[in-house]
Amino acid sequence: MYEGAVQELIDELGRLPGIGPKSAQRIAFHILEADGADMRRLATAITDVKERVKFCSICGNVSESETCSICRDPRRDPSAICVVEESKDVMAVERTRAYRGRYHVLGGAINPIGGVGPEQLRIRELLNRLSDDAVTEVIIATDPNLEGEATATYLGRMLSTLGIRVTRLASGLPVGGDLEYADEVTLGRAFEGRRNL
Amino acid sequence: MYEGAVQELIDELGRLPGIGPKSAQRIAFHILEADGADMRRLATAITDVKERVKFCSICGNVSESETCSICRDPRRDPSAICVVEESKDVMAVERTRAYRGRYHVLGGAINPIGGVGPEQLRIRELLNRLSDDAVTEVIIATDPNLEGEATATYLGRMLSTLGIRVTRLASGLPVGGDLEYADEVTLGRAFEGRRNL
Q: Which family does it belong to (chains A, B) (predicted)?
């Protein structure tokens, strides 16, 4: 609809996740009217991230070095590994400040329909790390959905033979939530996992 | 939170309109995992739009040339000018295929609180175009909100002295909408503007 460069930008923006045609148009006009230096910084940030960011050779988290800042940090407890699906999940757990161990990023979850089996995930790398006898607990923190649960079950079975403690994050009512609005599955899990007060 | 380049990209994306921190993170990881050539195209589209796109010297619409494709088109009716706030509104009217005249983009609407008065808008340029006696009708298509209505009233008064027909787009019920869910002001306007069947 628009002439050349404006339409090209709208098209490129519209390919990003969660950006519909209206948002793409709004962002394109914002870029058109914004300060040139700011927009060159945005363009550079996009190309830079592809060039500078690698994945940690130990845990698979995003990193600008061979190993990520968490794996390099000697203050992190080497006896615990928290297994997550994506780098985003590492940040989510870090924000809780409740965990001081290390991580392992699988790069997804088992999803037979989507063509993701155990061999597409970084499970072999996890097993290699566990051969080091410093690790005493593996905390499985995959998403509480179908794929995440399948991955947790698979890992649980596989790791149970190694004599390492394997745990899964608790399912239950979200803090600050309302019991009335909880779905049946979550509420059922909250009952199963009830604790003595 | 993230190391260097990833966080820089999240910050830059988060400054775009309608992109919150969660979306910025999701888009940043998409960019990180996407094809390098696609992402270079996105970065180029952002810098290109700033370099290649100008504003039409006649109507103020976005254009890659001195004048836009609509102003250059000899098939467009030179007797009508449709006055809109933004280039986006030109495209919205074009999509209706109901109008074959020309446009004038004001670059905003009168908004005293936001510091936008008539002198910040392209009103002088509009008056210069009207001195050409080819124009017989000015259709004011500013947004149907407070600022748009104020701008329409201001332009209506100013142009009434020139002996040119000045019209305003009809307000009323959106087609396909539900009378029950229309707000009072829209429903009131629909009554005022009722027509014989």
A: Belongs to the RecR family.
pLDDT in tens, B2-22: 878 999 999 999 999 999 999
Residues of chain B found within 8 Å of residue A4, distances taken between Cβ atoms: 52-53, 64
Contact: B26, A18; criterion CB under 8 Å: yes
Residues of chain A with C-beta less than 8 angstroms from the C-beta of B71: none
Cβ contact A44–B49 (<8 Å): no
B34: closest chain A residue by CA: A50
Shortest alpha-carbon distance between residue B33 and chain A (Å) = 8
Average pLDDT over residues B38-65: 92
Q: Do B17 and A30 touch (CB under 8 A)?
A: yes
* Chain B partners within 8 Å of A1 (Cβ): 91, 94-95
Report the percentage of chain A scoring pLDDT > 90: 64
Edge-first strand order for the sheet with A165-168 is A102-105, A80-84, A137-140, A165-168
Answer whether residue B183 shows pLDDT above 70.
yes
Contacts 24+ apart (CB under 8 A), A166-170: A166/A137, A166/A138, A166/A140, A167/A137, A167/A138, A167/A139, A167/A140, A168/A139, A168/A140, A168/A141, A169/A139, A169/A140, A169/A141, A169/A144
Kindly state the percentage of chain B with pLDDT values over 70. Answer: 99
DSSP state of B142: -
Q: Which domain holds residue A13?
A: 4-52
**Complex ipTM, two decimals?**
0.76
Contacts of B38 in chain A (CB under 8 A): 15
**What single-letter DSSP state applies at residue A3?**
-
Which of B4, B29, B47 faces A43 most closely, judged by CB atoms?
B47
Question: Does the residue A183 lie in any domain?
Answer: no
Residue B84 and residue B47 in one domain: no
**Domain-located, residue A188:** no
* One domain, residues B29 and B112: no
